[in-house]
Amino acid sequence: MTPQRDLQVRDRLDEAEHAEVYRLIARAEAADGVAALNEQALLALAADEPQVRHLLGREGDELVGYVHLDLSGGKAGAAGETVVDPDRRRRGWGAALVTRAVEVAAPYPVLLWSHGDHPGAARLAGRLGFERVRELLRMSRDLREPLPPVVLPPGVTLRTFRPGEDEAAWLAVNARAFADHPEQGGIDAADLALRTGSEWFDPEGFFLAERDGRLVGFHWTKVHPGDPPVGEVYVVGVDPDAQGGGLGRALTLAGLHHLRDRGLAEVLLYVEGDNAPARHVYERLGFRPAATDAQYRHP
């Protein structure tokens, strides 16, 4: 007998449900070779944030599908991440979960990511009336290849982040630098605390550029554990008033030198697919496209 399909919506997950979701995420990532959920969703899941709805798909007592749906975007749309057990795919679970997510988010749109731009996700999106609205490119670079020197603009000095002192200044510059970015520009003090409280956070890899004692730019690096570990250009930002003088390039190189000096052989970064100027800068620094994440929107 085929187990009955059960779709459940939770405001919060209990300890056992959290464990089930993490096991499902791990199975999917092992099968696909890409993360099943992005960092923001994983942070919200760990923090049990109240604006999130959790959609659980079960066959009998077994969790086989999950949607993480963040409703904080309001009219801009609910941000979603979907994962289905690799052994239960092509059985209608993806369609059932996504359709339920659209119902939960109504009357607002739903925005779903396809990590790795999986062709199955593209087919499902088209069938359910989603349109492709955004691409996020992952680029990578071999750190064993030579790096240009770090040349700071005149009057600019570089230091590392001081926890407990630099949060407010960083939040202000980040908001200015990413005023038009749908995720990065909205980071607040609570979001920053979640990240600086993570196991991977290292203030020695968080570089701040100052001119006349005022913060004008930053490069926050990250190291992903593994065998071997991989570095990341987590985020580079420059205050709009300080753009155009080579500060972004200098900050990027400062972080790359730091990651190389830690013994890392590879570094990656994410950049918007339609941000041609940024892609050009990174290509000139030796980065090459490696993968694509696609976002789909249901009206």
Summarize the structure.
By secondary structure, this protein is α+β, with helices and mostly antiparallel strands.
Task: Itemize the secondary structure elements and their pairings.
Elements: E1 5-10, H1 15-32, H2 39-47, E2 52-59, E3 62-70, E4 78-84, H3 93-105, E5 110-114, H4 119-127, E6 131-142, E7 156-160, H5 167-177, H6 189-196, E8 206-211, E9 214-224, E10 230-238, H7 247-261, E11 266-272, H8 276-284, E12 288-298
Parallel strand pairs: 4-5, 10-11
Antiparallel strand pairs: 1-2, 2-3, 3-4, 5-12, 6-11, 6-12, 7-8, 8-9, 9-10
Residue share in helix = 25-40%
Order of helices and strands: EHHEEEHEHEEHHEEEHEHE
CATH superfamily of the largest domain: Gcn5-related N-acetyltransferase (GNAT)
Could you tell me the CATH topology label of the largest domain: Aminopeptidase
If strands are numbered along the chain, what order do they take across the biggest sheet? 1-2-3-4-5-12-6-11-10-9-8-7
**Structural class determined from secondary elements:** alpha+beta
Number of domain modules: 2
Shape, per Cα inertia axes:
elongated
The unreliable regions are: none
The CATH architecture of the largest domain would be 3-Layer(aba) Sandwich
SS summary, helix count: 8
